[in-house]
Amino acid sequence: MFVIGVTGGTGSGKTTVINMLKDKTKNIDISFLSSDSYYKDNSHLSFEQRDKLNYDEPNAMDFDLLTNHIKYLRKGKSVNVPDYCFNNHLRLNETTVTNPCKILVLEGILILNNEKLRSEINYSIFLDCPREIRLKRRVSRDVKERGRKKADIINLFKNVLDETHKIYVGPFKKYCNLILDTSKQANISEIINLIKKISG
After folding, report:
1. What is the pTM for the complete model shown?
2. Model confidence over 157-168: pLDDT tens digits?
3. Cα→Cα distances 166→1, 2, 115, 149, 158, Å
C-alpha cells in the first residue's frame, strides 16, 4: 500500500483537494482517510471543557490508533475508523469500515508531526495558502457547517491558530515532496499522474 499524505494549515483547501482527487480516481483501488476522525476520545469531559481544548496541536490527536490502522491496512486487514462529531467535539460510538487498498490518501493538519506516523507516509503534499484566505475559508466553513460564531472563530485564529500554524504546520513543509499553491483552484495534475503511475 502506498500512502500519500495531504497537509497544510486550516483553511488551506485539504477537503477541496481530496474531493477533486475522489472525482478523478473513481476507477482506481484507492481509499481516503482523514486524521480528523482520530481526535482523542474526550467524552469524560463536559462540552464546556471540550470546547476550550486546542484541536490544532499534536496532543489533540490519537496518533497511535491512526498509525496502527495504517499498519493494519498494509497487512491487508480492514479497520474501523472512528466517526467524529465536530459540533460536540465527541468521538461517536459508530465507526466506518475502511478496507485494504493499493493507495491510501491521508489528509490532516498534523499528520507530519508524529514521527511514527510520518514514517508510514510515502509521499507528502503541502497545500500552501496565505493566512487571510485561510481565515476567510475557516470562518465560512465553521459558521455554515459547525454552528460557530464568526467573532469566536476570528478570536480563535488570532489567539491560537496563528501560533499553532507557526509551530506545528509551517515547519513541516520541509518534509513534503510537493508544495501546491491553493490560494486559488489547485492544480492536482501532478498528484493524479502519481496515483495513476502507482496504480499501474
Report:
1. 0.89
2. 888 888 999 999
3. 32, 29, 18, 24, 12
